[in-house]
Every structure is written in C-alpha cells, then in structure tokens.
Write a structure and sequence with these properties.
The complex is a heterodimer of chains A (327) and B (307).
Chain A (H helix, E strand, L loop, with lengths): L2 H15 L3 E6 L15 H4 L4 E4 L3 H13 L3 E5 L10 H11 L10 E8 L24 E4 L6 H10 L4 E6 L14 E6 L2 E6 L8 E4 L5 H15 L3 E6 L1 E3 L3 H4 L7 E8 L4 H13 L8 E5 L8 H7 L3 H13 L1
Parallel strand pairs in A: 1-2, 1-3, 3-4, 4-6, 5-6, 9-10, 9-12, 12-13
Antiparallel strand pairs in A: 5-11, 7-8, 8-10
Helix pairs in contact in A: 1-5, 3-4, 6-10
Chain B lengths: L14 H22 L15 H6 L8 E4 L4 H8 L2 H9 L16 E2 L2 E3 L6 H15 L5 E6 L6 H12 L4 E7 L2 E2 L2 E2 L8 H7 L3 E5 L4 H15 L5 E6 L15 H10 L1 H8 L1 H23 L12
Parallel strand pairs in B: 1-3, 1-4, 4-5, 5-9, 8-9
Antiparallel strand pairs in B: 2-3, 6-7
Classes of the chains: A alpha/beta (327), B alpha/beta (307).
Bound molecules: thiamine diphosphate and magnesium ion.
The site of magnesium ion has 6 residues of chain B, from strand 6.
Chain lengths: 327, 307
C-alpha cells in the first residue's frame, strides 16, 4: 500500500471512529480530494464534517482550534506546508498557548497536516521543510509521517496528547510503499521508534543514523551503498514524534558514531536539538560529536539540477558517514 | 458569470497586439505539451483563456511602474518583456533563464517586475512600493495581479485598507476566472469583489469584455487616476481554459465548454479570419523554434549561490 493510501485510510478511520472529528482545508472536497489526493473520498462519506475553505490558512487553522476548543477533534490540511507560515500566529500564540496559559490544562485535540519538502521542482515557496521553526514551542508537538509507522496509529497518538500537533508529510513519500525496504534490511518497531538493521547475525553497526520519515529511504539507500562499496554497516532510527523527542528511547540503539539526517536547510535545525539531547546523555561515549546532515543554507531552487545540489540526497548521507568514521 | 460576457464581435487589433496574444497562447500550449511529454520538471499554471488581460493593460503601464504577478504569470511577463526565450529557459532550467532557474515558473524578478507563489502576500508589498513611488516618483504606480481565490487571504484586506487610507497609487487587477484550483468562486467568496472594494471606499471597475481595444479605452482614464494616487480595483470576468496546473481539471464538462465558447482565440479567428490566419501559424512556428532552441541549451547556472 502506498503511503498516501495509508494516510487516506487513516483519515477515513478517524472520521469513522470519532463522530466529533472534522477535516478542514483548501480544495479537499471530492472529486478533487486535495492537491495530493490524501483526502479523497472523505467529503463523500462524511459530508458536513469535511469542510473545504477559501484560501485562508490562518483562518482555517483558527477554525480547527475553535472546533477543538469546543470538544471536537480537528484535522487541518495546509495545501503546501510552506503556507503554515500563515498559520504561525494561530499555532504559536493561540493553540499551543491555550493548552496551559489559563492556569489549568485545556486539552485541544487538533492536528495540522503539512505536505513538506522538495525534490519535485515546485520551487522556493513550495518545497521547504519548516519543522525547525516549530521546535521548542511549549504545548505544540511535532510528528513526521514515515513509511514504517501506520498513520492511523500516529493520528491516534497525536490526538491522545490533547495538545495541538503539526504533522509533517514529506511529499515524496506519498507515492512510495509502506514498510518497503531492500531485502538487506529488517524493520522493527519499538514504541514510536522504527529501527532498521541489516539482516543477519546481531553485530554492533559501525554507525547509527537518526532520521525523520521523509529522509528514511535516502538514509537506507546510503546505508546500502556504504555496505556494498565500503563494508560499512549502519542502523537507521526513525522516530515518529520529532518534538518533544524521547531521547532516552533512542539510547539502547546508539553506538559511538551517530548522525542525524533531515531535509531542512542549515541553521537552527531539528538535528541540532537532537544532538544536544544526545550529547548530554552520551558525551563520553561518542567517538565525536553527533554529526548533522541537512540541506545547504539556501533557498530551494526550482530547476532539478540546482535543487539536487541543495537538498540532502543519498550521497550527502553516504559522504557524511564516511567522514564521521574517519573521525 | 458566463452569460454576462459580451458576445459581440471583437474589434480588430493591430498586428502587434494580436501577435502578442498569440505568442502567449502558443507559449502556454507548448508548456502543457512539454509537461505532457515529461520534458519539464515541477509544475506550472497556464493563463490559457486569460491572455487578453495583460495584453489589454500593456500600453497603460510604463517601464517605471512596478508589476507584481502571481502563480499564473506567464502572460503578465510576456506582455511586459516579450521575452519567451528567457521565460522558457527559466521554466526549463536552461542557460539564459531570467532568474537562473532558481525561481522557475512562479518566482520571477526582472527590473520592476516580480512574481511569487504565495497567494496574497504581494499586496502589502505592492502597497509599500506604491508608498515609495508616491513620494519619490509621483505619476508611477504599483500594479498587482491576483485571482478571485486570493481574496480569501487576510493580507489582501490589510493592504486595501492601507491603500485607501494612505491614498496610494495601487492598481489591483483581479482575474476572476470563477474558480480557484478546484473551488468555484461561489463556494469560497461571500459577497463580491466590488462590495469588498466598496467597503474600503476604493473604486471598482468591472470588465466583462474580452475586446482589447474596448477594455483599454475604458481603463485609460481610470489608470490615469491611479497615477494621481487614487487606488483602483479592476475586476476582469474571465475564463480559465486549461487545468489549474497540469492535469488536475475536474470541472464539469459544461464549465469547460463555457470557457471554450468564450475563448478570444476562437472568437477572433471567426471575426477576423484573414489577419488571424496570417499571424497564427507563424507565431506557433516561432514558439516551436524557441522551444527547440532553448531545450538544446546547457543547464542554467546559479551565480549567487549558497554557502
Ligand atoms: C497562501 C497560499 N495558499 C494556497 C496556495 C495554493 N494555490 C495556488 S494557486 C491557488 C488557487 C488560486 O486561485 P485564484 O486566486 O482564483 O487564481 P487562479 O488560479 O484562478 O488564477 C491555490 C489554492 C498558494 N499558492 N498560496
Ligand atoms: Mg481564480
């Protein structure tokens, strides 16, 4: 099953299971079913609870918060995650604050879905990975879609937190298959963490890569080429929740060489937050600082040959691992 | 709104205007063809059916005016610069691209022309530019193109308020094609563009004609007033002939047929067959030659590159 179909089924499941659940966003109604077709079939099956809006990201996010405030479950779709910038005030100053700023906890069950990332030639305002701009907001949790996490379970986990969540969905994942890995690898789940190891006798991997779902296939491609070309073994850890990160859950799977790979452009990245959490726990046991792999400090160009130069790809990760092992 | 469209004969245009109209038409058709063949990366939004809007405005705007365009901006660009080579190179990421292939179809900057792909955000910027122009270059204006759907964004209203309050030389050109991506205007807009302009005390002018000469004659005195720092909203009732971007057209057949019936291209061919056929073939061939030439160029290079 493709990731987009899994997510679509998860939304159907949510609206089916929860009679207070709403889905709101631009161009999400049938027959169009959303710019990336993730909401297909929802408005036909749940008319009245699937609401198409004008081009008003700030307002639709505020409406989701209002629905959540009155006891409903609200899922908002931002057509391209870049436009969540227009909803920043609603998330930062209203929704996340409201959970605690009135002196007692005010649960809000809301998720803002953000199709994210580049690699499709959509250009500088339609290709960004904005996760880092939301890191560290009290009352706001960040999750990322992954091919190794069933989206119905992830939706459930987000809503259970009772605080607003932003769900980053790397657009290139939509057309990839769930749970698909090269036969070299095996995947297992430890709570919210997916652990991908080389098949075969248990041995300590030479390096561990931590990456959100959108980066997983590129990290795995790098692990494959590292093994085949350099006999370097790796392990991949994919957390479903990026913030707040459960760093302790990562510890049993880490070794002396750790990298964090993400698509965000350089500067103030999620990876630097992860690195800090790990340094505090592992400083003496690491061969060197946690190595950050991210896109260049640049806008994301439209032309494919330029976009490739900026965004993290398999080879970026491959080279970073080799450098990390060289020390 | 189809019914309101003027079905009278289109008046005869100068060859120059007709050539430009045809250039934009064949440019856009070529893009869809290239996308269809998988020869272009990313996405694009064609202005098929709406070409006459910037062509009608062309002589009313001067080189000192600023133009802010949007995602559906190829016609705006070509009408301003007549540079299909640079635009196609930008879209194809080839040498000679207007913005090095970095911006692509919807992020273009050249001289006093700028486009971006985030709906509504250029209105306040255009107001800022208009403020500058009013102080330093009186008589010039800032023109900003937006669609009907973009009226969903709050920034539009914040900018209109400032434009009226500060008496800015701001010309807002609304291309109301009755739809925003997949959403019909009636499903996303309460009230009307005219009513919204009126709320700020801004003059609103409705254009239902696709006759370039007629539109120009009606707009000339109004645009002259914008230059005297009187903001204006001009709303074109127009038709999107093609899909929103590439293959995402789910409109009912009737809506697409209405757009075809109103298409200036077929109407003009009918009303002025000799002139039309004298120019249409050559312009089409010219665009084909440009596409071949640009496709053969080496990839664009990005000069101001990153760290
Ligand atoms: C802030 C923002 N939200 C959503 C989009 C996605 N989007 C691009 S074009 C478009 C529809 C615009 O409709 P309209 O303003 O009527 O212009 P048209 O496409 O009809 O020319 C949408 C929703 C965007 N580019 N920017
Ligand atoms: Mg429109």
């Amino acid at each position: 099953m493709r990731v987009a179909e899994n997510l679509n089924a998860a939304l159907h499941g949510l609206l089916d299971d929860d009679p207070t659940a709403y889905m709101i966003g631009e161009d999400i109604l049938d027959p169009y079913g959303g710019a990336f077709k993730v909401t297909k079939g929802l408005s036909t099956r749940f008319p009245g609870r699937v609401i198409g809006t004008p081009i008003s990201e700030g307002a639709l996010t505020g409406v989701a918060a209002g629905l959540a405030l009155t006891g409903n479950t609200a899922v908002a779709e931002i057509m391209f995650g870049d436009f969540v910038a227009l909803a920043f005030d609603q998330l930062c100053n209203f929704a996340s604050k409201s959970v605690s700023m009135y002196g007692r906890r005010l649960p809000l069950r809301m998720v803002v879905r953000c199709p994210t990332g580049g690699g499709r030639g959509y250009g500088p305002t339609h290709s960004q990975s904005l996760q880092k701009h939301f890191v560290g907001m009290p009352g706001l949790s960040l999750y990322e879609m992954s091919p190794f996490h069933d989206n119905r379970a992830v939706l459930g986990a987000m809503l259970e937190r009772g605080e607003p969540c932003v769900f980053f969905e790397d657009k290139v994942l939509y057309t990839r298959q769930m749970d698909q890995v090269d036969p070299l690898f095996t995947v297992r789940r430890e709570g919210g963490l997916a652990v991908v190891d080389l098949r075969g006798p248990d041995a300590r991997p030479d390096c561990v890569i931590i990456a959100p779902g959108g980066m997983a296939h590129r990290a795995l491609a790098a692990m494959r080429s590292l093994l085949v070309e350099q006999e370097i073994s790796g392990r991949l850890l994919v957390p479903s929740r990026l913030y707040p990160l459960d760093a302790d859950a990562l510890l049993p799977f880490l070794g002396e060489v750790v990298l964090v790979a993400e698509e965000s452009t350089a500067g103030g990245t999620w990876g630097s937050e992860v690195a800090h959490l790990l340094h505090a726990r592992l400083w003496g046991r690491l061969r060197g600082p946690v190595r950050l792999v991210h896109s260049r400090a640049s806008v994301i160009p439209t032309a494919a040959h330029l976009e490739n130069e900026v965004l993290v790809g398999e080879s970026t990760i491959h080279h970073a691992v080799r450098e990390a092992l060289r020390g | 709104m189809t019914e309101t469209l003027d079905r009278l004969r289109l008046s005869r245009l100068g060859d120059d205007d007709l050539e430009l109209l045809l250039q934009v038409r064949h440019f856009e058709l070529k893009l869809l063809e290239l996308y269809g063949r998988g020869e272009l990366n990313g996405t694009t939004h064609t202005c098929l059916g709406q070409e006459y809007v910037p062509v009608a405005l062309r002589p009313l705007l001067g080189p000192d005016d600023h133009v802010f365009s949007n995602h559906r901006g190829h016609g705006h660009y070509l009408s301003t610069f007549r540079d299909p080579h640079g635009l196609l190179a930008e879209i194809m990421g080839r040498e000679g691209a207007v913005c090095g292939g970095v911006g692509g179809s919807q992020h273009i900057h050249r001289d006093r022309y700028m486009s971006t792909g985030v709906q509504g955000e250029s209105l306040p910027v255009a107001a800022g530019v208009a403020l500058h122009l009013k102080r330093t270059e009186p008589g010039t204006l800032a023109c900003v193109y937006i669609g009907d759907g973009t009226w969903g964004e709050g920034a539009v209203y914040e900018a209109l308020n400032l434009a009226a309050l500060w008496e800015l030389p701001l010309l807002v050109v609304v291309e109301n094609n009755g739809i925003a991506q997949s959403t019909p205007t009636a499903a996303q807009m309460a009230g009307s563009v005219g009513g919204r302009a009126a709320a700020f005390g801004i003059r609103h002018h409705l254009v239902v004609s696709a006759d370039v000469n007629e539109i120009r004659a009606a707009l000339a005195p109004l645009v002259a007033e914008v230059r005297q720092a009187r903001p204006l909203v001009v709303e074109f009732v127009t038709h999107r002939l093609g899909p929103h971007s590439k293959g995402d057209d789910i409109r009912p057949a009737g809506a697409v047929q209405a757009a075809r019936d109103n298409d200036w291209y077929g109407r003009y061919a009918h009303d002025h067959p000799d002139q039309f056929h004298r120019l249409d073939g050559p312009v089409r061939a010219e665009i084909q030659a440009i596409a071949d030439e640009v496709a053969a160029r080496p990839p664009s290079r990005w000069e101001g590159t990153c760290a």
